[in-house]
Amino acid sequence: MGKKFTFNRNTLIHILCWGLLLAFPLFTFRQSDTMTDVMRHFFRSMGGTIAWLSIFYLNYCYLVPKLLFVNKRKRFVLYNFLAIFVLVAVMTWWWHLMGDIFPSSTPNKMTFNAPPKWTRFVQMSFMLILVVGLSVAIRMSQRWHKLQEAKKDAERIRTDAELKNLRNQLNPHFLLNTLNNIYALIAFDPDKAQTAVGELSKLLRHALYDNQKRFVPLYKEVEFIKNYIELMKIRVTNNVKIDTNIKIADDDSTPIAPLIFISLIENAFKHGISQAGDGEISIEMSSDDDKILCEIINTNHPKRDNDKSGSGIGLEQVAKRLELIYPGRYTWEKGIDSDTKKYFSKIILYNDNKVRNN
């Protein structure tokens, strides 16, 4: 079966434009004109309008998409030349026919009933060429728009696929690091290890289900982060100072990419605690109408050779996800302070669409 015709906005625009063009001569007659003069002028003008309509849709529906867009330019020019020649002949015949059917009430005047001269042939041909150009321009514009939409769709599909791949990598990476922490607990405190397994189940619920969404409410992500921090506190000694300052309302539903900050917090617990079991970790989060802030500072202790807490892919994933989800709408400052004693990482996610320097 053929494609079903749908009446949409573009169809309505076409009908209105051609309808106004057909009716325009009715508004240009003189007060002294008789009804016969008005009808003659209207029907003569209608012949030109129908000729324009014919060559417009000949190009719009067939010649432009079937010839011009497939690089058959010579045939495109030839067919248009033939169409213009035929339409000029038809318009001339129509002009005389309407003059005979509706004779002028003022035959001595040369207003309408004089036969077209060569200048009129040039004028008619020029107008038809303009209509061909208009048809080509509209078709080219529509084609460009469709190509841009297709490009955006392809980019969106690629981005979604890459994000899905990153999320699929993140879950096992997060699980591996957490299991390594629990494994370390089993050796010296089985009770804490058992408690950690219970906390882990809460975290996995968020990591496995909410992580599959492009965005989650901020309060859910904060709850996840708090649970993770509590889980990490189980394995550290009292010599580790952990300071959390989270200024986010319990009902803050600002959308945020899931697990976007967790690798930074993992990194703080991984490198912020010395082999002797002391260190400092500061985690600050806040949100307002313009931005979401996450700033983490920890004492700088390079990774030990016997540390099994991951391969360092977490921060790479953070960078990739920020570029894919918040392009031009984030800042990330990170590094070691001047005395090399503390490492800092500060991410700001902007809620507006202004392009900002990374």
Structural account:
The protein has 358 residues and is an alpha+beta fold. The chain folds into 2 domains: 108 residues; 190 residues, Heat Shock Protein 90 (2-Layer Sandwich), CATH 3.30.565.10. The protein contains 8 helices and 7 strands. The strands form 2 sheets. A 5-stranded mixed beta sheet has the order 2-4-5-7-6, covered by helices on one side. Strands 1-3 form a two-stranded antiparallel sheet.
Question: Any descriptors?
Answer:
358 residues; alpha+beta; Heat Shock Protein 90; 2 domains; five-stranded mixed beta sheet; two-stranded antiparallel sheet; 7 strands
What would you say about this model in short?
It contains eight helices and seven strands, in the order αααααβαββαββαββ.
- How would the global form be characterised? rod-shaped
Percentage of β-strand residues: 5-15%
Number of helices: 8
* Unreliably modeled segments: 108-115, 353-358
Query: Kindly state the mean pLDDT as a whole number?
Result: 76
Structural class, please? alpha+beta
What is the CATH class designation of the largest domain? Answer: Alpha Beta
Taken together, the total number of domains comes to 2
Read across the widest sheet, the strand sequence of neighbours is: 2-4-5-7-6
Write down how many β-strands occur, each being a DSSP E stretch of 2 or more residues.
Answer: 7
Major beta sheet summary = 5 strands, mixed
Order of helices and strands: HHHHHEHEEHEEHEE
**Rg over C-alpha atoms, rounded to the nearest angstrom:** 37 Å
CATH topology of the largest domain: Heat Shock Protein 90
In the CATH hierarchy, the architecture of the largest domain is 2-Layer Sandwich
Task: Assign the CATH superfamily of the largest domain.
Answer: Histidine kinase-like ATPase, C-terminal domain
